[in-house]
Request: fold
Amino acid sequence: MDNLSGRNYSEITEFILLGFRTAPKFQIFLFFVFLVIYMAIVVGNVSMVLVISMDSKLQTPMYFFLRNLSYLDLCYSTDIAPKMLVNFLSSEKKISYNECLAQFSFFALFVTTEAFLLSVMAFDRFSAICSPLLYHVNMSHKVCVQLVTGSYICGCINSAIHTSFALTLHFCEEHRLDHFFCDVSALIEISCADTFVNEMVLFILSALIIISTTTVIVVSYGYILSTVLKIPSTQGRRKTFSTCGSHIAVVSIFYGTVFFMYAQPGALSSLEQSKIVAVFYTLIIPMLNPLIYSLRNRDVKDAVKRIVYGKLSSQ
Reply:
């Protein structure tokens, strides 16, 4: 045990994830509820990836980004859900220190990447609607790969910074995390050292990411709206803007929960409230995204029909 600045700090080797404090019978009920949700996430997002990969008519920039979105949803929900499901059936609910940091690091990586990818998708819709003649030049396959790679780089940078600052946190006797996964807010809450810098880093980085990505989205849709309003026919305006409907729905849900979770100075004050929002953020959104894009998108539904009919006719 080291003595730093007159305080005793212990070397934490594991945490206990308190999760949802309910009766044991209700824990079993929650296990089955979240198991169904996670299965829906896996089936929905894997199906989107396979459909887009298998159908030649979906080999466009828009669906290239959508396939990556499904992959990210699958990754960060898988980072959270399996351990969460195990803990519903476990009395100890332990997670090692290294596993905790790894879970948080990957979560930060994938969620940050998704934020930037959503802004890239808005730029793609802007290019398609506002500059249709130059669309295939502006959004060539090389450019699309670079934009996705850039999103991952931003995710890696944000994850590395947060993980580095998380490593500076000191813990005394308290090792119980009042959360169902290793979120940075829960780690800061139980640290017995001064966490002002960590809280400011969390707030500033979250604000920078939200401001930069939402600026791209708002500006893109500002130009899109201006272009759509210039179309003379009502049917033409509706048809053009309908291609953005799914993306607008996904962006609204995603950024609404991100802002609520991380971009408020008082975000750490109510962990019980944060846990409820985090369920929506980590599991419900990855489940809803493939539903939103498949139910609202005729191209995806037609692709599914072509694949199914093709398989049936080949038998």
The longest helix spans residues 97-130. The longest strand covers residues 14-17. Strands lie at 2-4, 7-9, 14-17, 94-96, 176-177. Confidence is low (pLDDT under 50) at residues 1-6.
